[in-house]
Amino acid sequence: MVRVFCGNSLVNSVKMRIILTTWALTRPTGVYCRRLCTEIALPRAQNDDSPLSVPENYSEIERAPNLPPTFNFASYINKSPTLQQLLNLGVDLYSIEKRKGLPQFVLKLDFERDMKHVIQFLTDQGVPPDRLGHIITKNPLIFKEHCDDMAVRINYLESKRFSREQISWIVNKNPFWLMFSTQRIDRRLGYFQKTFELSGQEVRQMTCLCPRLVTYSMEHVRKSTFSIKEEMGFEKGEVKALLLKLPKIWMMSHDSLMDRFQYVHKSMEITHEHLCRDPYILLSRQYRIRQRHEFLKYLKRAQYDPQKDLYVSLKNLVVGNDEEFVLNIARSTISTYNAFLKTL
User: Fold this and answer.
1) CA 111 – CA 129 distance, rounded (Å)
2) Half-sphere CA count of 194, side-chain side, radius 13 A
3) For the chain, give me the number of helices (H) and strands (E)?
4) How does DSSP classify residue 232?
5) How far apart are the first and last CA of the chain?
6) Does residue 52 surpass a pLDDT of 60?
7) Alpha helix (H) ranges present in 31-128?
8) Which of these, 291, 290, 285, 284, lies nearest to 315 by C-alpha position?
9) What is the percentage of the chain residues whose pLDDT exceeds 90?
10) Comparing C-alpha atoms, which of 136, 127, 75 is closest to residue 109?
């Protein structure tokens, strides 16, 4: 069970004394439990005058377009201890004030009453002080959550054999995870397990590789699954291999993913099997892939077969800046590369 701090003991803002821990992502074995974990209903105080209702899909908050601010925090900072504490924590107030409804919500918060216990809870889950600002910036609505509810969600992960290091990783990498009830998380993990025939260990592996995917729009995830299977032509086992290797591609826009796949598969003649082994090229912009591939063709070094000489891995084709690519992969000069790009 998780020990929850919800009392009134002092938390000294960002300089609170916390022992930083270093964790490594592990992959424990064990069978993934399909049992639905019903979230415990606990009594709580209601804030009826809240200016912002809790949305159903928190991925929409993160992906919401920037809106022109109706006001800014600048005129409030000198007289607001709460805003000063947020600045000390490294919160980007400018980012928050551009998002509809959030400035009013933040201004009504009291650091001692509404925030201290949540910050302490996050640090208890392994969030280091220098990460708190990022998490609050991304999801200030975390302060609407009660520690008891968040503790149940942590306990749920423990019941599914996620290690403490993995749980810390998830909380750090996905600021919205603790906003989702255990029922919703259970349904989503169940979807991935059933659809891709994952073992318990593979569910944990996928979740830790990309914690944001589990709380992402499920409609988008289903469309991506259809595109990868039907439009790109990957076989069932290959789709599973892609998910366990690079789950992030399920969050990409349909058009971007399809354009990159079409170029890599048809123009570069990379097979489905090869992409399953080395899919990272799909995260790179198409123009970058095209420029570098065409330059290697020009140099007669576009060789992606590991069984042959002058082999270039698909990942090495797209990583690093242009100078690093030209010197280490193309074995040429940046002036030659720049001159070649003018011919495209």
Assistant:
1) 16
2) 8
3) 20, 0
4) S
5) 60
6) no
7) 59-63, 74-77, 81-88, 93-97, 102-107, 116-124
8) 284
9) 76
10) 136
Q: How far apart are CA 53 and CA 69, in angstroms?
A: 19
245 with 280: CB under 8 angstroms? no
Overall residue count recorded for the chain in this entry:
344
Both structure tokens of 164: 């403490």
| Alpha-carbon distances, residue 41 vs 150, 152, 181 (angstroms) | 12, 10, 11
Q: Are 294 and 325 in contact (CB under 8 A)?
A: no
Quick one: pLDDT band at residue 72, thresholds 50, 70, 90?
confident
Residue whose tokens read 């919703």: 184
∠ Cα 258 261 262 (to 5°) = 85
Distance in angstroms (rounded) separating the CA atoms of residues 16 and 196: 44
Provide the 3-class DSSP secondary structure of residue 210. coil
Distance CA 265, CA 169 (A): 34
